[in-house]
């Protein structure tokens, strides 16, 4: 593609789209051309959604799941039918969506906010681990399911959390998702059947 022959506004959009995870140059071009050919209304709707993203999405102060800006806590935490004594520990908010799709979990969640990754400059102090310990004590949690991704970072984070809880002298059952999830596949992209089997086959550590 000869960038010099394209309009500046189009180039800027291609560059911005291309900076998104999983979007390569060709895909960014296709998205940009699609928006250019579409009606102004579609572009304005997309722009409005992006503009409201940081003002109308908030984080639950207990579970760290994503919530609407006018909500105080996550619905999955305040729902009386959910078991607060059973907590699934996940890396990112979208991992909650993946586990909920299985329909086999009636506990609550705790979002770490990432995984330990020295190469990316992410250490334990940047994750919501102390808040997890507070929740375990406050809600009298009986079992913690560590549902971090099946990756090197996920495994390292799981081990750190397990040791952190042990060092805090907290008596609790700690389990890990069974290895139905292929190594290298993020929880967000795992299929529902695999996740369901992983939940059913979790083992105590």
In words, what does this structure look like?
- With 205 residues, the chain is of the alpha/beta class.
- The chain contains eight helices and seven strands.
- The strands form two sheets. It has a five-stranded mixed beta sheet with strand order 4-3-5-6-7.
- Helix 5 (93-100) links the parallel strand 3 (83-90) and strand 4.
- The N and C termini lie far apart (54 Å).
In short:
41% of the residues lie in helices and 14% in strands. The chain contains eight helices and seven strands.
What features would you highlight for this structure?
205 residues, alpha/beta, Helicase, Ruva Protein, domain 3, Dna Topoisomerase Vi A Subunit, Chain: A, domain 2, five-stranded mixed β-sheet, two-stranded antiparallel ribbon, 8 helices, 7 strands, 41% helix
Structural class: alpha/beta
**DSSP E strands, number:** 7
Which whole number gives the mean pLDDT?
A: 90
Bulk shape = elongated
Low-confidence spans: pLDDT under 50, at least 5 residues?
A: none
CATH architectural grouping of the largest domain: 3-Layer(aba) Sandwich
CATH class of the largest domain: Alpha Beta
Q: What name does CATH use for the topology of the largest domain?
A: Dna Topoisomerase Vi A Subunit, Chain: A, domain 2
Total domains: 2
């Amino acid at each position: 593609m000869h960038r010099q022959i394209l309009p500046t506004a189009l180039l800027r959009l291609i560059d911005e789209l291309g900076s998104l995870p999983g979007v390569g140059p060709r895909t960014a071009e296709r998205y940009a051309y699609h928006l250019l050919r579409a009606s102004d209304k579609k572009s304005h709707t997309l722009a409005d959604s992006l503009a409201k993203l940081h003002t109308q999405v908030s984080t639950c102060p207990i579970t760290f799941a994503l919530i609407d800006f006018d909500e105080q806590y996550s619905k999955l935490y305040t729902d009386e039918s959910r078991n607060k004594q059973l907590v699934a520990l996940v890396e990112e908010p979208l991992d909650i969506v993946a586990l909920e799709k299985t329909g086999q979990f009636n506990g609550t969640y705790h979002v770490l906010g990432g995984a330990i990754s020295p190469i990316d400059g992410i250490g334990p102090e940047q994750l919501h681990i102390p808040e997890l310990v507070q929740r375990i004590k406050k809600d009298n949690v009986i079992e913690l399911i560590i549902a971090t991704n099946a990756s090197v970072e996920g495994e390292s984070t799981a081990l750190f959390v397990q040791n952190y809880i042990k060092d805090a002298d907290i008596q609790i059952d700690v389990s890990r998702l069974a290895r139905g999830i292929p190594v290298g596949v993020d929880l967000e992209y795992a299929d529902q059947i695999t996740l369901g089997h992983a939940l059913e086959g979790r083992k105590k550590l």
